[in-house]
Design brief:
The complex is a heterodimer of chains A (112) and B (117). Chain A is mainly beta. Chain A is built from no helices and 11 strands. Chain B is built from no helices and 12 strands. Classes of the chains: A mainly beta (112), B mainly beta (117).
């Protein structure tokens, strides 16, 4: 069992669809993150949750809506996305006060 | 603002050659952490090393070695006797503290390493 698990691995959705990405960590960490990795940009931090409270929202459009119901689970709810939102979405977790983050394998999202 | 520059976009080497991946960073923090991550084709980012700003000792782990030089703001990564399994995208990253004690990583754009048999 990997430390950080993301589902689905691949997702194709239309611009009018609503879908959710799921992340689960089995490492006992208390901070979780969503990153976006697109073809020509560096990895971009989208959201940070620490102790289930959102502490960072890096100017992400409202069509992305995160949810952290407990310290082990993190969701990213998607609605009315644009084709430019197509990217690899990576979830990570870390322990508060510890610097390194551990990543899942990502969800490859294609918006058509 | 923090910044990480990986000037090499793609590198190709023949198996068993040594290769060095460059990383230059910018920060105003006096305490910071530097990282290298490996991203194989499967997509997962694999943590390789963390180095804090007060520890300039070079580190060796098997075929991997890291050279941290604060004077030039560089944190370079060398793979000795490269193997095909080393083929991946390698990211250098710099951390800063966000709210509530969590850390935000600023990544470089990555260097794609191809090791040819």
């Amino acid at each position: 069992e990997t430390g950080v698990t993301q589902t689905p691995r691949h997702l194709v959705m239309g611009m009018t669809n609503k879908k959710s990405l799921k992340c689960e960590q089995h490492l006992g960490h208390n901070a979780m993150y969503w990153y976006k990795q697109s073809a020509k940009k560096p990895l971009e931090l989208m959201f940070v949750y620490s102790l289930e409270e959102r502490v960072e929202n890096n100017s992400v459009p409202s069509r992305f809506s995160p949810e952290c119901p407990n310290s082990s689970h993190l969701f990213l709810h998607l609605h009315t996305l644009q084709p430019e939102d197509s990217a690899l979405y990576l979830c990570a977790s870390s322990q508060k006060g510890v610097t390194e983050a551990f990543f899942g394998q990502g969800t490859r999202l294609t918006v058509v | 603002a923090q910044k990480v520059t990986q000037a090499q976009t793609e590198i190709s080497v023949v198996e068993k050659e040594d290769v060095t991946l460059d990383c230059v960073y910018e920060t105003r923090d006096t305490t910071y952490y530097l990282f290298w991550y490996k991203q194989p084709p499967s997509g997962e980012l694999v943590f390789l090393i963390r180095r804090n700003s007060f520890d300039e000792q070079n580190e060796i782990s098997g075929r991997y070695s890291w050279n941290f030089q604060k004077s030039t703001s560089s944190f370079n990564f060398t793979i000795t006797a490269s193997q095909v399994v080393d083929s991946a995208v390698y990211f250098c990253a710099l951390s800063e503290v966000t709210g509530a004690g969590s850390y935000q990583l600023t990544f470089g754009k990555g260097t794609k390493l191809s090791v040819i048999p």
